[in-house]
Design a protein that fits this description.
By secondary structure, the protein is mainly α. It contains 16 helices and four strands. The relative contact order is 0.16.
Length: 358
Amino acid sequence: MQTVKFSRVDQNQFFQTLRKRVNDYFVQNNIRKTGNLNLYVKTIFMFSLFYVPLILMAVGLIDGWASILAYAIIGLGTAGVGLCVMHDANHGSYSKYSVINKIMSYSMNLLGGSSFTWKMQHNLLHHSFTNIYHLDEDIDDKPFLRLSPHGKKRSYHKFQHIYALFIYSLATVSWIGVKDFRQLFHYNRNGLTKEQGYKPWAVGTIMTSTKVLYYILFIVLPIIFVAKWYIILLGFLVMHLVAGFIITVIFQLAHVVEGTEHHTTDAGLQMENSWAIHQISTTANFATRNKLLTWLCGGLNHQIEHHLFPNISHIHYPQIAKIVKTTVKEFDLPYNEYKRMGTALLSHLRMLKQIGVA
């Protein structure tokens, strides 16, 4: 697999200084870097959003057209579990116990996705090669979307800032469909699956079986016992429109906004900056003072802190952000931040417009 090399020159040892300060914070306050009661309570809440409506349908308390509202709530739960539980678990920051992290990482499979392909795309490729076209799959060319100024341009991209939000709503539909299988085939073919210590047949078996169970639980059984097939299919679509929109917007506002850098390997495989400086140059925060949003989106509005310290649970980001911000300013480095989510969203749409015509 093509890769890049980051500069070994860290501006006045920025990251060493920052890492020491962050580590000192946890030591001095006798705090673990992983999750705590706050995260576990949030887990119960998000799984309740995900499963309680389904249970109410199963026992007959919700049926008919009311099922669509139930599915919409399940969509909120899907986004909540993905952002607040699965994400930490797949980064190994949910718990200090690796077995618990592994178990909770399979919450991605409960959502109809694949823990394995998520780890490959997100942990390995996105976090290693953030905003580097052809390596960071998050900014790869998507159907009808150009997310990198280095991507292939089509005539319709000049309108992408108008229709992008609708396309985002279909993101989790892709998860539960062909995307995971296509990615697994790609990772198997280029040897990445085995290189990362996984057995292709085992990964494929787990992914296929959990998807079949997901379809049975959220489509087949409700059609049999709850409501007519067209109501259930409409509700299922609404569920994914809600989940896809929330999850995709949260992640897009972190990297495809004005002020973040985009790179390509066309000019060579050597990056100008060190890995840490590359992360803060390609990443942005938004609405970090909004405590409710921070709680609901798994702290991923603190994306700079997450990219610098992905092994630290998101519940600690508001605290360590103070350290990061001070240190970045001290070393005269960029710190991309939007005070409000709406401001970040408008910046994202402007960026899409620029990319679409550049």
